[in-house]
Amino acid sequence: MHSAQNPPHDRRPTASEAKRAYLAMVERITVSGVRDAAAEREELRRIPEELARWLADHRLLDPGGERLSPPERALRHIVAEHGRRLQETVEGLGRDAQALEDVLSVLTAPRADAREAVEIEYFTDRSRTRRRLEELDSSGMEEFLVMRNGFPGAQVLEASLTGDLEMLTDGVRMRMLTSQQAVRSHVAARYLNALIDAGVEVRVAPTVPLHMNILDRAIVVIGAGPGPRGEGGDVILHSTPVAQCFFKVFTHAWDLARPHGGHRPGRGRAGGELSAQEREVLALLATGAKDETIARRLACSDRTLRRLMNQIMEKLGASSRFEAGVAAAHLGLVS
């Protein structure tokens, strides 16, 4: 007889505990070789949440949580899922390879103009890279594009989130593209959801070719990866033509990616989500007030006003100020 005791409720079970609990449940609900459906449902109602999650992760529990799956069926599901993921990865790598070839063809194309000297900075300490990005942001950055094929640990992400939110408060527009593998981490998921709540657009692709930032389509920061002696670093390229090439790589991958499935703000929802300040901006726009007049009335900077306008258009599902005004009028937000 297998042990009838389930693992403790207050922690995730070990693999050995979960397997023993699974076999014990199968034994208890099987009478004379036939499974008792009522007994099975009763067993599953009593199991700890962490054990149910372990069983579901291993495909040993059906999606509805009312039936145990035999190991043979669980194995077929896992193999089928991996097959789909491998196919998506192969297709994604093919698209990324084509995008890189397109960019290389642009870089190597003959040009009539004189050669451009490109300023290059190289950092082996990522904390120094982050400080350098803060310096560049202080000079008046307006757009920040991010491509991530992985995320660091919780402590580094927490510090990064603080800096990212400060940038957004200053009116910087931010888009982030990351890979399916990267978002499986709970730490990364919390970080991305916090960015989405702050107004960042986040998309996920099967694969992401580079670890890269693009600042105002004029500066590129690329993770250089490990060197011959194991050292790593970041390269900062100060060149608008070079940045435009990498922007094409970003745009190509972005257009093929899907919105992140976290609690993403919906487009075109009712205006009840607009803050009092955002409603005031709409009301002033309806009077024909110009940006400088609105910023002076709100006692905010031009960049902050631009951020507010982007938030308003996102919430109203509008692609221009005119569309935002029409949507606001339909919703009765302005008279």
UniProtKB/TrEMBL annotation:
Gene3D superfamilies, per database record: Winged helix-like DNA-binding domain superfamily/Winged helix DNA-binding domain
GO MF term (any one) = DNA binding
**Which Pfam families does the entry link to?**
GerE
> Where are its TM segments located?
none
Which example biological process does GO assign this protein?
A: regulation of DNA-templated transcription
The keyword Transcription is assigned to this record: yes
What keywords does the record list, in alphabetical order? DNA-binding, Transcription, Transcription regulation
Q: Which PROSITE patterns match?
A: HTH_LUXR_2
* Domain HTH luxR-type, chain residue ranges per copy: 267-332
Name of the molecule in the record: HTH luxR-type domain-containing protein
